[in-house]
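input
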Amino acid sequence: GSAGLGPLLVTAVVCVWKVMVLMGLGVCLIRCKLIDEAGIKTINKLSFAVLVPSLLFSRVVESASLEAWRVCWLLPASAAVHILTAFSAASLAARALRLHGDRERVFVLSSSFGNSNALPVLIIATVAADFVPEDRGAAQRGVGYLAYYLVFWSVACWSAGYAFIASPGRPGPLPRAGTRHRAGAGPKFLEIVPTADEGDVPPVPLSGGDQGRPAEDARELQAVPPSTEAPLGKPAGPEQPATAGAAEAGGRWARTRAILGKAINPPVVAILLGVVLGMSPAKGVIVGGPLKSLHELTLMMGDASIPIATLASGASLAVGSGASPAALAANMRRAEFPGVLLMRAVLLPLLGFLLFKAADAAGVLSGPGGVPVDPMLRFVILVQAAMPSANNTVMMTAMARSLEASQLAAALMAVQMLLLPLTLTVWITLFLDTSYAH
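output
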């Protein structure tokens, strides 16, 4: 039967309360000048390269097995469904909102990829500790399930996601009286920008780190030599020698290598290594064997990643002016701000819930003999649909488009985080009831 509403609501409130306290502490550290933007980037580097991989590897190597894959294939499959559903819905919404160029690309990207790292890990840990304390392995299994989800999510984010944000997007409408042209930085097209008296509000600057690689890593891609091909309609002249094609090909290859370097990142490598070792005889050596002390060390470092990454996310939002009340009021006049809130806080969690119920009714979420799969696995699938935009979307936008576009992406994420207590409390309550109702 279903758990009572009281315990479900209390667990949801505690989950969100822990997230907001840690993020608030990060804001205080910035305001009190105990840490600066460079410090945030250093913390993000440490988390991305050491702490988060330790967390994922230690959990996956314990849970990986051929038997586990009979059920855990649901996680990467769910990631694919979530991303495709979000991308389709956001693309339709962008057309309805008449977004073009940078604004369209940033809106769709921010809507398509939800946070799959520090935030869900903290929620999973809280659910395991406060809602099912009798299930001692719930937290370990939950993080392991999240790692399986990340196998598809991370590769899709840094391949299809980056290719999307780097493409020009739909051009704006034809010029009309009272408009001026502004060349969009990055893509080769002209964006129509209304004049000030038309009421359009420029995005309020908000820089922010990433719980993955820090923002300055964007220079790796920005340093790739620009295209040397001749402008449309003009043959190559002295300025475009015959070697221009080779230079262009070299630039494309360098960019491809840079993108692959982002897709095959330390967390993904840790997950894949954990799967391989966990399904081999080496598992007995690492878990409870001669190397158990090394495994215990990775567990300790992994546990540290949860509060550190969440604290850094809060500190990142405090850098700049985008999280201030004035900035929030100004930004809400732009169509993409209420749009992204509706997408990630209402529509996508609802679609994810309905698809989950349909799959459950069809027996997809049941094991042999119709026995339902682990409730924690069910919860991980559901909660991922309700996460706010991933921090990686800000970094990818900074790498592929203009500074204004990256500030817009960061401001979109900040607005979601400010409304997180209300939206996540509702969805976590519903998802816990659905997951543990059997």
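quick obs: The longest strand covers residues 179-183.
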